[in-house]
Write a structure and sequence with these properties.
Layout (H helix, E strand, L loop, with lengths): L5 E4 L1 H7 L9 H17 L2 E6 L2 H10 L3 E4 L2 H17 L3
């Protein structure tokens, strides 16, 4: 694997490529993610993955991924605005 430093797994893209968009619990999807992580580990390459939630990120780190990208900037901004609006609503 000369010239390859690591692999980034996009769970959404992977589920679509497997013909099951959004079906992250599908055994084929779960097995594919595990297979990629193990192959990277065995080859001495870095493994990266996207995680939409904190709990998923924790699980991926436990699974052995070298790096986890958590959420997306737009989603984090939306959550921050929701939190601010909720706090502003508590002006009593």
């Amino acid at each position: 694997l000369d010239g390859i430093d690591g692999i980034f797994v996009g769970p959404f893209d992977l589920s679509a490529a497997l013909g099951r968009p959004g079906d992250f619990a599908n055994p084929e999807h779960v097995a594919a993610i595990t297979r990629v992580q193990r192959a990277c580990q065995e080859a001495g390459k870095a493994s990266f993955i996207y995680s939409p939630t904190v709990e998923d990120a924790k699980n991926r780190i436990r699974q052995g991924f070298d790096s986890v990208t958590y959420s997306m900037d737009a989603l984090l901004l939306i959550e921050a605005v929701k939190h601010a609006v909720a706090q502003l609503g508590d002006l009593d």
